[in-house]
Specification:
homodimer; about 350 residues; alpha/beta; Quinone Oxidoreductase, Chain A, domain 1; Rossmann fold; 2 domains; six-stranded parallel sheet; globular
Chain lengths: ~350, ~350
């Protein structure tokens, strides 16, 4: 169990990755713990969420959110406790969901903070009840819209988005076909998460196995990886299929376009002839529905055991860079969180 | 003015094109005029519609509709008159919209036939009031959904789909930017159809001109061509853009995928980071809304002059193959119809 220090330990971005991030892109740093001013609170991080989107923040390519500047603390969702408060609405000891980043302490004026109450497992607020679960929920509700008997395919099936996608498919009466890396993950997807079948994308005959698992085609492909999985999905898409598109992890480390032939028109022709809807969405645009709709649906599912997500907990802030690099390689097994401090 | 014959002249598909269709893919043929049996009517073609989708029917590649078999009459939408009737609901002389194909006469049991009444211009039922107008209407209503002040871009702007897309954009308060081939078509788009601007895709600096015409980006790109126009559109798409996808004329004659790099992932990344919806649709799935909704909206627009489409009338069934080959090359100017017989 890592100790909470009297210094503010942080992980800074020191250079932008070319291709896959390396440990040299990060720097461990210590600074004094900041003191809250009037109207401010000090939040002490207990859990830090590591998520694929952070690769985008390390880049200076134009995207939907600002880059982390060189020398700045890496950004990230966190669950923590109020360590000091100059606000009447937050008391010392309160559990909060915040966006403190890769560090022990952060100041806040209360904006964007969510009080968590007495959760049995506060880290769930970073997974099934947090941004990944919400991403799965919006993509399935607004775009995927699985109907009973349809086939839903999702990759990274044991990750927090994929796991919720598959279990929502089952709740809606659809067939859930997962894709994951390795036999352990595939077994977990079927035995613990309730997928009907899960295919190992490392298998040499992956495309054939996926086709065999989807004899009536694919009605919903929830896209969070791209790459070879999408290549195998494309010929299997049914007429009228829907593709919610929330991530392309397989491409985040790309430094150039892959060699040809150019399949851009092939993709468009497939969307046309099979009347497919493909739609990108960014979860930060949907926060208005988080408490009013998502939490109302998901909390009962989690309480009743209909939606589960395995956690992969890494101990110690200093291990966050290596854990994040592994996440982009699929080395995590479940929702990756870093235990930064004691409860 | 072509003469109506006492033989049934027809254009048959004799071979499948490799790349662009050639006159050798078609054969002119004559057969006896068929005699309607009990419950049947004989329809004499007056106008034949030529449309890009017919290129797909000449191919045996799997698509959303069956191919024309070798030796069979080419399919196509037609406006004609009832020449003989064994049905109480159709009288000799009635104007009807049918799917008689590239020939003088066809039998029908009445199914799929629409009585046109006394239209001043019956050929409009093949254009602005027919399948092309309906395609524009559904794509704009269900997927494009232009809002006041947004920018709508459409290629083949003087064709029957593009012309209606642009004029619907104006009706909805959006900016209409057309793309067409050559100065005459661009002038017609602006002066007669009311586009705000129209760019010649043959211009060497086409992409720069399009960017200059869309200073706030592109909110709706109504896709009916693909190719170089889409390449220029892609970097200009706004966050939250919609792309109704009803055709890819630039690719219909493709015999192989173009050389790389492979931009499939680039397209998906663009859809993701800009939260874009791209959706293919096939108008034959929407016939339930044709009379109830489309006709109710479009007929007043046409009557009031808010929606116009220029017609490009080719005289004589025997000229249909050359006219169709020209259509795929953009040689037509307006909705291409063949006058097959006299009124």
């Amino acid at each position: 169990m890592p100790q909470t220090t009297d210094r503010n330990r942080r992980i800074l971005l020191t250079s932008r990755p070319k291709g896959a991030p390396t440990p040299e892109n990060f720097r461990f740093d210590e600074a004094p713990v900041p003191t809250p001013g009037p109207g401010e609170i000090l939040v002490r991080t207990v859990f830090l969420s590591l998520d694929p989107y952070m690769r985008g923040r390390m880049s200076d390519a134009k995207s939907y959110a600002a880059s982390v500047e060189i020398g700045q603390t890496m950004v990230g969702g966190t669950v923590g406790r109020v360590a000091a408060s100059n606000r009447p609405d937050f008391a010392v000891g309160d559990w909060v969901l915040s966006y403190s980043g890769w560090q022990d302490y952060a100041l806040s004026n209360g904006q964007g903070l969510t009080k968590l109450g007495q959760l049995a497992h506060p880290s769930l607020a970073l997974g099934v009840l947090g941004m990944p679960g919400f991403t799965a929920y919006i993509g399935m509700t607004d775009i995927g819209q699985p109907k009973p008997g349809e086939t839903v395919v999702v990759a990274a099936a044991t990750g927090p988005v994929g796991a919720v996608v598959g279990q929502m498919a089952k709740i809606k009466g659809a067939r859930a076909v997962g894709v994951a890396g390795g036999a352990d993950k595939c077994r977990h997807a079927v035995e613990d998460l309730g997928f009907d079948v899960c295919i190992d994308h490392r298998a040499p005959d992956f495309a054939q196995q996926l086709a065999a698992a989807c004899p009536k085609g694919i009605d919903v492909y929830f896209e969070n990886v791209g790459g070879a999985v999408f290549d195998a999905v494309l010929p299997l898409l049914s007429t009228g299929a829907r593709i919610p598109l929330c991530g392309l992890v397989a491409h985040y480390n790309d430094t150039a376009l892959p060699p040809g032939p150019d399949r851009l028109a092939l993709l468009m022709r497939t969307l046309l002839t099979r009347q497919i809807r493909m739609e990108g969405f960014i979860i930060s645009n949907y926060f208005g529905r988080r408490d009013a709709e998502f939490a109302k649906a998901m909390i009962p599912w989690v309480t009743e055991g209909k939606v589960k997500v395995r956690e992969d907990v890494v101990d110690g802030l200093e291990n966050a860079p290596a854990a994040f690099i592994g996440l982009l390689e699929g080395k995590n097994f479940g929702k990756l969180v870093v235990r930064v401090g004691q409860d």
